[in-house]
Structures are given as C-alpha cells and as structure tokens.
C-alpha cells in the first residue's frame, strides 16, 4: 500500500508533462527506426527483401500510431495544455503531439491502412508508368490517391477550411492558398517575362565543359570535400549513394546525405552542396530538442531555404569558387586544367529552360514549381479531371518556360511526390528559395557576404544561420523565424530582386 | 453490444495461437529494428551518434520487453500450451516465446533498460580501450556488465542451477558446464601435445606468398565471387565492410555479411567464406519460419558449424581449389601467377600458434576458445577479479599455445563479446567446429565429398546441409539436428580425428 500511495504522490508531483515524456520517447524511437528502414531501403537493402521488410515497417507504424492515439497520451496532452509552467520547448512539443494525435485519430484505422497499402503500391506503379511513358497506367492510382487525400483533408478541415489549405498546412504553416496565390502571382508576373529577355539576350553561355570524362572516384572525393567545406560534420554524419539524392537523420548526431554520380559533373557537385545544406540544418538543431517532436527543421520550406541557400546563394556564387576552384583543377586536370574560373562559374549559372525540375537552373526553377502549384490546386479545389493533366501540364510548360514535353515521362510523370500522396509539398521548393533570398539580403546589410566567401569563411555564414534558424528546430514556424532573423515578415520581392540582379548582370539584360 | 459479442465469439473460434500472433509479430518487428540498428552501428553510423542512438535502442528494447511480458501474451501462452492441435512450428514458437517471457519477466524493466544502454555504449568504450592498449579503461565497464549478467542469470536459475550454466543455455541447449568440461578436456588432452609435435616437425610451410600487394578492389571482387560460388544469394543479401567481419539478417530475404580487407589476402578470403556460411544458413531457413521466433539458426554452435564447414572443411580443402585457383591467378597475376596451387593450399593451411583468435589456423583455433571458456567460467563461477584477467590470459596462452601477448589489445581486449555481454558464447565456436567435423564424416560415408568439390559441385553439399539443418531454423536444437542428420549424438572424437588426420598428414606427424 505504502508504495502505491508513494507512486500516486510522485505522479502528482511529476506533473502531466513528465508523465507524457516516456510515451513520446517511445513514439520518437519508433519514428527513428522507420527512418532507418527507409534509409536502408534506398541505399542498401537487397532486391528481394521488399515484401518482408514492408511487413516490419507496417507493424512498427502501427505501434507508433497506437502510442500517439492511446488513451494515456490523449489525457496527458489535455492536462498539459492547462499547465502554466511549461517551457517554450515543452509547449511546442505538446502542440506538435496534439496535432499528430488529432490527425491520426480522425482517420479510421481501416481507411488509413488501405491508404498506406495504396501508397506503398503506387510508387511501383508510378515508376513503371514513367519508365514506359504511359500516363494512363498511372491515372487510376492517382485518382484513388487524390480521393483519399481529399477525404483525409475533410476529416481535418476546421469549419469551412478549404481542403488544399489543410494540405498546405501540413508542410508550411502560415502559407494558405491566398498567400501562395500572391507569391506565385508575383513570380509569374515578374519572372516569365524576365526569362524571355534572358533567352533573347545576345550573351550566350556554354556549359560544354561540365560534361566529360569525370571519374566517379574523383567526383566522390570532391563531394566529400565540398560537403565538409560548407560545414557538414562527418563525425555526426555520413554520405552514401542512391538513385535520387536525399537527406535524412536519426537525430542531430546522425545525419545522412546521399548523392548520385552522373556524366555531367555539376549534377553531383550541386546536389551534394544542396543536401549538405539540409544536413547542416539538422546537425545544428539544439541538443535539447533533438529526439523530440520539435527536433527537426521547422518546415519543408525552411528546410529547402537552407539547402538552396548553400547550393545557390553560396555554391553558385563566383566568390565561393575563388578559394575552391584550384581543388577542382587538381582533381580534374584534363577536364578543367585549362578552363578559367570565370568560365566555370558562368557555365554552372547558365540559364536553360528545360523540362525536368531537378535539373533546372536557379532562375527557371521556381517556374517548374509554379506549374505544379497551379495544377494541384486545380486537382484538389476544382476537381480537375486527372485525364486532362498531361495536356494542361504541357500547355503551362510552354507558356512559362517555352518548352513542351514530348511524352508524360518528361512531363507530369517526372516527380514521385503525387504518387506518395504528397499534395501541398511542391510550393515549399519555391518558398525555400525565396526565404533564402530574404536571408542573404539581411546578411548583406551587416557584412560583406561575398568577401567572406572569397576568404573561404563559409563558417561565419553557417554560424549566422545556426543562430537564427537551425538551433530552433521546429520550435517556431518559418514566418516567425524569418521575422526574428530579418526583422520583417516574408517578402517575396527579395527573391525576384535577387534573381533579376544576378541574371540581369550575367546576361546583360536591363531590369 | 452485438459487435462485442461477435468479437467474443470470433476470439474463441480463433484460438489462443491466432490471438497470440499479432503480439509476436510486433515483437519480431522490434527485434528486426534492433538488428538493423546494430548492423548500421557496425557498418556506417557516424562516430558521434552512439550516445543518442543508444537511447533509441534502449527504448525499442523496452517496448519489446513490454510486449513479450505483457499480461495478454502471458495468458495466451498458457492457453497455447494446453492446445492440442498446434503444428511443430507453432509449438516451437510457443516454446521460444515462453522461454523469452520467462527470461524477461524476471528482469525489472529499469534494470533491463539500464543494461541495454550500458551494452550499447560499452562497444565504443571497449573499442577505444583496445585501440589505446588500455585494459584499465575497459575494466570498470566489464565489471558492470558481469554484475548485470550474473544478476540476470540469478533471476533465471532454477533451484541450484549454476549461473554459468544458465548463460550457456542461452547459446547452446544441451551443453552444460559438465558436458563442456568433458569436451574441452578432450581438446586440451589431445590437441595441446599434438600441436607441440606439429611445431617440432621438420616439415616447414611458408605462407609468405599470402602477404603482398593484393589490391583492395581485386580482393573485393574475389570476395563477391567466392561468396556467390559457395552459394550465397546476392538477390537476398548484401556485403559491406566493417572492422570485424560478421553476419546478420532481418529475415531470410535480407541477409548481410561484412568483411575487411587486409594486406594478408587470406584474411578476407576465408572470412568471406566463413560469413557466407552463416549467411547461407539464414537464407535457407524455411519461408514459413522466417520472421517468427524460430526463424533463425538453431543455436550459436550450429551456426558456427555452418560457417566453419564452409570456411575450413570446404574452403581449406585442396579439392575446393581445383576449379577455383585459376580465378585467383587471374585476379592476382603478379602475386600468384607463378605459384603452384599445391603451394597455395599448403600456405593457407599453415599451422602457426598466434595471439589472435580470428586469425588462428584451423588446428589452433579451438585452443583460443579453450582459454576463453576457462576464464569466463572463472569470472562467473569463481568471482575471478577482473583486474587479474590480462595476466591469467597471458599465462594460459603461454601454456596452451606457447605464445604470450605483449599488451592487452593482443590479449584479453581482442574480442568484442564480453563488451556485448555475451558470456557463454565462446564455447560455441569450438562446438561448431566439432559439429562440422561430425557432419563431414557422415557425408563421406555416402558420397565422395572431395570429388564433388573438385568438380565445383559445392551446390550439392549446400543442398544436403539445407535439407538436414538450414531449413529447420530454430525448430530443433543442435543435438537433435546432429542426431537426425548423422544418426548419433554429438561426439567430439570426430573433430579430434579430423584435425589429427589432416594436420598429421600435412606435417608428417605420427598420430
């Protein structure tokens, strides 16, 4: 009896939050194991393991869901919300857990399972359809995914909320359709005509030097050098190969990048700096936040702002190459020994409207995203017929980029996102670039940004990003972080200015 | 109400075993995730991840323990034991689950978790101590591990059972201290004097050719070739590098080997055939058993019998090299082009008492194990002071093998096992070799074993092992499997005879 009442007293003393912690620790451990399985599937697992390992993953997700939606967690979360003395981190964790609970408990388990099975299968169907350039083979699956996505969004929607707004909120809080319409409206109005001028410019840039006999081993050496140079810590991270580059992490002391090696050497080079940007973000989340529900980057858009900051604003900056270019020449004496640094930097900044988003240059990139934003909004909000997608896609590419896909594989089938049920994800790619531009404009007010790069001082830049962004994890949303760092709310004008200034100069276009 | 009583009826109809299954599925999924974390730690995880990942591993073990020891599983297991119509596999699964429950429920969850975290971290402490040749840096951790090991064994011990017997039973059922004292007694009595004779033989074998400029890339090519040649299926498996070679698996469609590449080319060569032996065992467990509690190899000893069968009885057999040696000469024309096959085979069978178990030749190998058996028995049964280990270790090496370590890294710190809490594991290395000898003697009765190898028919040998051993997983214990295959109980004389015959001939020693 004594021990029972002791326990009771201790429980009361502990408070709801302390009691909640072990449940969340379990949920986080399961999440970490799911992340490791995904990583392993993408980088190493043997060909025939899939079916058996999927069963393991399904079971682990089930346990995760059960913990989050269990009676204990639900009650403790309610009590926590009433508690007065929680720290900012604790409050944020309670908020995230409540949102997760709210999302998971509203979906009937049977529907959730059916959807999970559909999505597990759809990546394969999409992949085959893409290989065979056959949109019709994917369309029925896409329809089903959209059906479930809308259904689930309906469960979440608060009175009158638009379904696409519900989806957007999953990836980027504070960016509704209204706000994104404004943002993409500016991009369309400003960048589409500007791109036309760039293409009509008499200045022509050749990037022939980037394609050639760049040995894979040397490319790998370069990749490791660059990742470390920009600040990725290999004592807390690793790099591997996969079909499509990505970054993932178990916690802030275990962050993992992948890359691929292609004939065009700039493909791996910039994908590595890009992924290192994601990785640096995760490595610099505060120790106190890692392994909690707020221990990851703030949002998809904020994550993308860091990867694109490193890739473009640092990596495609002429000043960046001043101390680094000789390393490239050492690694590839035959290919680059006789190439001037200026010509190399011009080559990696060549503007060339194309069909494939992941290969797009910095200027045209967000126009690829614009196409996707407009189309997924129509799919969710206007019940656009899936069959009409390829044609509409092609029309929009022609209008904004001046190119038209000849088959669906270089058009609507190119990205895996919709096959994974990720609707509302694409806008963050463009938002990230815009966040990054706002950040660099802020930095330039107080320091000579280019001079730092020229001296090889990427570290100072990284420290600033750490101080204002990285360390906070998911504690604050992207608009709050931007506001706190730059002193103003998100302002897309900086992005437009940044692009016009850089590419206006390069292509001698008046702006 | 209707649905509740429906559920009740269905439950009764389903039977206890069907109700038990989802719990065991969860336990197995957690086990698979723990295996993946271990694999990842050994092969890839970044240096500083340890502490954070250990927390995840500790939490997952905790969930595993909770599932196995939960009220539901306990009650269902009791019901299952009464059920009449279970298949052999179902009975075995119930037996394994009951043993696991029995083991885990006696350990207080807090202690279990503390122990898991201790062990997750101790590998790193051991590894640093080994690198720095500093036993004192590891001793406090080893003491803690032994403290927990004995404590846990005490929880399990049935009236009067000796603690080391409890531990031995975890790795090899049916092999108590009494039985192992007999076994190791025979080895000591027979092999220590035989080894002296071999060392005094006028026959001297040179293995200089094995050390040289063997390029790592070519060694890797050879490793993949040999693993596949002896029957490892790369569609259901992968190979990676790690400091110490090992094999693990998530299920029978995902089996993972590691190797290392050294200057001495036979190191990777035989470690790969050895690990492939483990891997082949796991790949050939029946599909119906994989992902259940009996879906792994029968025991540590039986596992080791397969790896050592492939490594020694197949791989160090002159007949094996008849079809394969030319491949080696192609890969290493400078090193082996002018070396006769006979001389190569003699070199890889050279007897050379040394300090390191994993580099030991076939004859001296079990004497390394003998040292460890005697010492861990003293640690557990006689409270041997950990501080005295290095000296005692050195004395025993001198007595049995005629060599004495100059520092603890080539002595007591060489193996990771104790750092992982694996007490009672070592004897299985010697047992495995002895099982393998008994198996080949059986095969030789009904077929021309060497003729098969000469023709390159390893596949036929593999099929026999699959039929008698692999497919059964943990359904039957090692003595039963040996009995069923060879027609008699374990008999260590076959091992002694095999070694004396092979090495007596090679070194022209009368036996």
Shape estimate of chain A:
globular
How much is the average pLDDT of chain A?
94
Tell me the series of helices and strands of chain A, N- to C-terminal. HHHHHHHHHEEEHHHHHHHHHHHH
Can you count the beta strands of chain A? 3
Oligomer: homodimer
> Biggest β-sheet of chain A: count, sense, barrel?
3 strands, mixed
From the N-terminal CA to the C-terminal CA of chain A, the straight-line distance is 81 Å
Could you give a quick summary of the protein structure above?
The structure is a homodimer. Chain A has about 500 residues and is mostly helical.
Overview of this structure, please?
A 3-stranded mixed beta sheet of chain A has the order 1-3-2, sandwiched between helices. In chain A, 65% of the residues lie in helices and 3% in strands. Chain A contains 21 helices and 3 strands. Chain A is globular and about 70 Å long. By secondary structure, the first copy, chain A, is mostly helical. In chain A, a hairpin with a 2-residue loop joins strand 2 and strand 3. In chain A, helix 1 runs antiparallel to helix 2 and helix 10 crosses helix 11 (300-314).
């Amino acid at each position: 009896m004594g021990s029972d009442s002791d326990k009771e007293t201790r429980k009361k003393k502990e408070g709801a939050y302390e009691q909640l912690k072990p449940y969340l620790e379990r949920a986080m451990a399961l999440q970490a194991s799911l992340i490791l399985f995904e990583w392993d599937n993408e980088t190493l697992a043997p060909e025939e393991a899939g079916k058996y390992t999927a069963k393991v993953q399904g079971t682990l997700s089930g346990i995760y869901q059960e913990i989050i939606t269990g009676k204990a967690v639900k009650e403790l979360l309610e009590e926590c919300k009433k508690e007065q003395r929680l720290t900012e981190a604790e409050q944020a964790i309670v908020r995230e857990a409540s949102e997760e609970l709210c999302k998971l408990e509203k979906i009937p388990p049977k529907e959730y399972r059916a959807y999970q099975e559909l999505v597990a299968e759809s990546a394969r169907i999409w992949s085959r359809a893409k290989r065979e350039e056959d949109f019709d083979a994917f369309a029925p699956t896409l329809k089903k995914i959209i059906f479930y996505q809308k259904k689930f969004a309906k469960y979440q929607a608060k009175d009158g909320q638009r379904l696409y707004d519900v989806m957007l909120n999953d990836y980027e809080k504070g960016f509704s359709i209204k706000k994104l319409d404004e943002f993409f409206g500016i991009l369309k109005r400003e960048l589409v005509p500007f791109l036309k001028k760039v293409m009509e410019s008499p200045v022509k840039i050749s990037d022939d030097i980037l394609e050639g006999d760049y040995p894979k081993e040397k490319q790998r050496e370069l990749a490791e050098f660059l990742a470390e140079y920009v600040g990725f810590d290999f004592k807390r991270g690793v790099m591997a190969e996969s079909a499509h580059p990505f970054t993932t992490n178990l916690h802030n002391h275990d962050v993992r990048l992948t890359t691929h090696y292609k004939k065009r050497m700039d493909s791996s080079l910039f994908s590595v700096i890009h992924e290192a940007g994601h990785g640096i973000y995760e490595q610099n989340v505060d120790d106190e936040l890692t392994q909690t529900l707020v221990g990851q980057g703030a949002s998809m858009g904020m994550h993308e702002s860091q990867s694109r900051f490193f890739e473009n604003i640092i990596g495609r900056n002429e000043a960046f190459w001043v101390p680094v270019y000789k390393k490239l020449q050492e690694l590839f004496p035959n290919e680059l020994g006789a190439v001037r640094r200026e010509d190399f930097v011009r080559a990696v900044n060549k503007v060339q409207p194309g069909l494939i988003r992941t290969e797009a240059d910095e200027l045209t990139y967000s126009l690829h995203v614009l196409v996707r934003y407009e189309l997924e909004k129509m799919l969710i909000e206007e019940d656009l017929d899936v069959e009409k997608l390829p044609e509409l896609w092609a029309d929009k590419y022609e209008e904004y980029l001046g190119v038209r896909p000849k088959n669906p594989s270089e058009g609507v089938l190119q990205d895996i996102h919709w096959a994974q049920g990720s609707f509302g994800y694409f806008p963050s790619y463009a938002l990230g670039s815009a966040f990054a531009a706002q950040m660099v404009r802020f930095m330039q007010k107080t320091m000579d940004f280019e001079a730092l790069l020229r001296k090889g001082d990427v570290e100072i830049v990284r420290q600033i990003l750490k101080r204002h962004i990285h360390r906070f994890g998911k504690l604050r949303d992207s608009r709050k972080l931007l506001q706190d760092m730059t002193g103003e709310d998100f302002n897309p004008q900086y992005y437009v200015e940044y692009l016009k200034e850089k590419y206006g100069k390069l292509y001698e276009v008046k702006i």
